[in-house]
Specification:
Radius of gyration: 60 Å
Strand content: 15-25%
Number of helices: 22
Number of strands: 30
Distance between the termini: 114 Å
Length: about 850
């Protein structure tokens, strides 16, 4: 059955389906009948929809691809045929789904069954509305048909091509090789075997070939063969490095190959050529390494760097196992190791510096100024038997040493060892001599630079030491917590000052050209009030007379208008001739220290005063309590009236002591930095005033107190604390006022606040005492006589402040003494 006999039938059925679709069963049913009639045909017959999915397929799919056809229905073309096969036919598939009839002949690489040459036809399934629902595919395998016709023609061409190729390969020193992908066996011609040093003519296992490939290229070769098996393409992206089987000699090969497929289209073997390009590669490597060495040596500035560059390029170019470089010592009697690679560290310990006449290759090379070669370890030990016990320091099986010559003068030697015998030739030695000549120039240049650096380093070290001392001095001056000034002698001109001096003076530093300008630049007085004369300044005395001054204090006018106490200490600075060359003065601000000392003295005096006052003021009520209590105990028969008087005395004395204790607690709370605690409640201040005044009228029955209230005095405040304020102010007025005049208490209400004033007549308070009235322990009346603890007015101030108000006092002969309290209606 051929496509030409089936296609007309398929086309007619599709046309009928399109014409009768509206009245006939669904398209799937019609196509199912169509495919059922060709189910046993030896061709692939299928229906594929617009999503590339198989809707139907005949039994030939089971024969071709090995699964029941139900396995393929519902799967996509890439899933059934494989992605490569789909890529090969995708253009035709998309043309069929666009409504075009497609025919083609092509080799298709199926994922199951291998590559096949097929003849295919795709018939689009066009519905009555003109849309395409899918296509019917008809595929016939014509692989054998094609291969039989081509085989005869190609045989003659191949025979002629092989003869021609053989001639070309032999003329160009090419070797040929073949890898059977089924058996993993290589077949090599005589030239290939010569390159790999492979004896006989037996097939070579692929793993044996891989064992000869250099480690850096092994993964690349494996990947190339794997790709040949998978994709039918063989290529190496760079030349190949291998080792000979017999000598281990490294060779470079240009390898080319092509994959050939079997009748089923599967990759079966790789045929290729190999060309030995070792000499070309070595020449390129030597040239590249020599250029790299010259470039790198031009940048070296130390002999050790020269050694590392030479060894890196020499060993890299020739594949040496180890390398070392020695230089002739300054005394010309020793060789000193400058660089080494490939040796165990412990093997170098005895060769850091050794005599020139030591029987080793380096000594002979330097003494005779020529290369020394040994192609085997036996040859080396024959000439230098002392090395027989060298052990692991002898790395390699062949050795070469070349001198570093500079104008016929030997400056050192470079040596290399190799892992195999006969590992180098004349070209390699010439390369090493060229490299050594460049190294000798670099060593000499590096030594000159080292000498220059050494001299420059010595000068820089001295300069750095001087600068370090200067910086250290500057740092000390900058961070000293005292001011420092420096003046030259004998003029006294101020040269410089440190930053802390600005802090002490509270203004920028001012210079003075002479001693005479000191007092103008820095106005100051002695602590007794006398002005400090220019020549009295400690700095002036040190500059002019070489005097050392310690701890002298003066009062200085500072830049912010305040006055401070500073302590001055100065000393002369002597020059090389022993004369005064300059002087330095230290300026310390001791203002706070003085204030703290004075405050401490006041605190001690205050504490002594406090103890005396408390002892005195508590003694009287306590004595009254004790006396009254004793009377009550000793005279039980006394009458009720006397008992009542004694009880009253006890109660009054206890209340007095309670007030004293309360005042002391309030003082302690204020000294701790917290405001007086309040419990504000809504109330009328007038009621508080009247209650306080009424209580005082009982306590002072012979004194008159007038109370005047204006306006509504309702507000939010602590009534108990304000009653204490009123009580203290009125009691103070009663105590210090003229008994012939009433104490006047006036309360006036305003919209946001109330104002309370308490006035008494009598001798006015002195102006010096007024500012201290509200301080604790500020005791005394207008005459200065002591009275009470002196805490009443202080506590008044604290209570008023806690309410967010203010209290003040004024006193004069005409007006009398008036205390005024202003309170907001809402406590703060």
């Amino acid at each position: 059955m051929t496509p030409s006999s089936v296609l007309p039938q398929l086309q007619r059925l599709l046309d009928l389906e399109r014409i009768h679709a509206p009245s006939e069963p669904p398209a799937d049913a019609l196509l199912h009948r169509l495919l059922a009639t060709l189910d046993a045909a030896p061709v692939l017959l299928s229906y594929i929809d617009t999503q590339y999915r198989y809707r139907f397929c005949n039994r030939a799919y089971e024969t071709w691809f090995g699964h029941p056809r139900e396995h393929y229905v519902g799967r996509t073309i890439p899933e059934v045929l494989g992605q490569k096969a789909f890529t090969a036919i995708r253009t035709e598939v998309e043309a069929a789904l666009a409504g075009q009839m497609v025919r083609f002949e092509r080799v298709v690489p199926y994922q199951h069954g291998g590559a096949r040459t097929v003849e295919a036809s795709y018939l689009p399934h066009v519905l009555s509305d003109g849309s395409v629902a899918g296509y019917v595919g008809l595929v016939v395998d014509i692989t054998e048909l094609k291969s039989g016709a081509e085989a005869k023609r190609l045989a003659g061409v191949l025979e002629e091509s092989e003869a021609r190729l053989r001639m070309v390969l032999e003329a160009g020193s090419f070797g040929t090789w073949e890898l059977d992908l089924a058996t993993d066996q290589h077949r090599w011609d005589a030239r290939t075997r010569e390159i790999f040093e492979a004896p006989g003519d037996a097939p070579v296992p692929h793993e044996a070939f891989l064992a000869s490939v250099c480690a850096d290229d092994l993964s690349r070769v494996r990947a190339g063969v794997a790709r040949a098996r998978r994709d039918g393409v063989f290529s190496l992206d760079a030349d190949l490095c291998v080792h000979g089987w017999q000598t281990g000699r490294q060779r470079w090969l240009a390898v080319r190959g092509r994959v050939h497929a079997d009748a089923a289209g599967r990759p079966s073997r790789i045929l290729g050529t190999v060309l030995d390009i070792t000499e070309r590669k070595r020449a390129e490597t030597r040239e590249r390494r020599l250029h790299a060495a010259v470039t790198a040596l031009a940048r070296t500035t130390w002999p050790e760097e020269v050694g590392r560059v030479l060894l890196r390029e020499a060993a890299g170019a020739l594949g040496a196992a180890s390398a070392s470089l020695v230089l002739v010592s300054e005394d010309g009697q020793h060789l000193e190791l400058q660089a080494a690679q490939g040796f165990p560290e412990e093997a170098l310990a005895g060769w850091r510096r050794f005599p020139l006449d030591t029987p080793v290759m380096f000594g002979e090379t330097v003494r005779e100024r020529r290369p020394v070669l040994h192609m085997s370890l036996a040859s080396l030990l024959t000439d230098y038997p002392a090395l027989s016990g060298a052990g692991e320091s002898l790395v390699g099986r062949s050795f070469v040493s070349v001198p570093l010559l500079l104008d016929e003068q030997v400056v050192g030697a470079m040596g290399l060892s190799f892992a195999r015998e006969d590992a180098f030739d004349a070209e390699d030695v010439f390369f090493l001599q060229s490299l050594a000549g460049q190294g000798a120039l670099a060593v000499e240049r590096a030594r000159l630079l080292a000498a220059e650096r050494k001299a420059r380093a010595r000068a820089e070290a001295l300069q750095a030491a001087l600068e370090a001392e200067r910086r250290q001095l500057a740092s000390v001056l900058e961070h000293l917590p005292v001011g420092v000034m420096l003046a030259e002698a004998p003029s006294g001109r101020i040269l410089k000052a440190n930053p802390h001096l600005d802090v002490v003076l509270r203004r920028p530093f001012s210079t003075a050209e002479t001693v005479a300008g000191y007092s103008e630049a820095y106005p100051a007085r002695h602590l007794d009030g006398r002005p400090v004369l220019p020549e009295e300044w400690p700095l002036a005395r040190s500059v002019q007379h070489g005097e050392t001054v310690r701890g002298e204090t003066v009062e200085l006018e500072r830049g912010d208008g305040t006055h401070g106490i500073v302590e001055l200490s100065s000393a002369p600075i002597l020059g090389a001739d022993g004369q005064v060359a300059a002087a330095v003065v230290l300026v310390s601000d001791v203002t706070e220290q003085r204030r703290n000392a004075e405050a401490l003295e006041r605190s001690v005096a205050l504490r002594e005063q406090f103890v005396s006052i408390v002892s005195h003021d508590l003694r009287s009520p306590l004595q009254a309590v004790l006396t009254s209590a004793a009377l009550l105990q000793q005279q039980p028969e006394q009458g009720p009236e006397r008992v009542r008087r004694n009880a009253t005395r006890i109660t009054a004395s206890a209340e007095r002591m309670a007030r004293l204790i309360r005042d002391l607690l309030d003082l302690a709370r204020a000294r701790s930095g917290t405001l007086m605690p309040l419990q504000p409640r809504s109330g009328v201040l007038e009621d508080v005033m009247r209650a306080a005044v009424a209580e005082l009228e009982v306590a002072y029955p012979r004194r008159a107190i007038s109370l005047d209230v204006e306006g509504d005095t309702e507000g939010l405040w602590d009534a108990d604390r304000l009653e204490q304020v009123v009580g203290n102010l009125v009691a103070n007025a009663l105590t210090h006022g003229d008994p012939e005049h009433p104490v006047q208490v006036h309360l006036r209400a305003e919209p946001e606040r109330v104002e309370l004033s308490v006035r008494n007549r009598g001798r006015p308070i002195s102006p010096e005492q007024l500012p201290r009235l509200f301080e604790p322990f500020a005791r005394g009346d207008a005459t200065g006589a002591p009275s009470g603890l002196g805490l009443g007015l202080f506590i008044v101030r604290e209570i008023v402040a806690a309410h967010g108000g203010q209290v003040s006092a004024r006193s004069s002969e005409a007006e009398g003494t008036v205390f005024t309290v202003v309170l907001p209606r809402q406590a703060a």
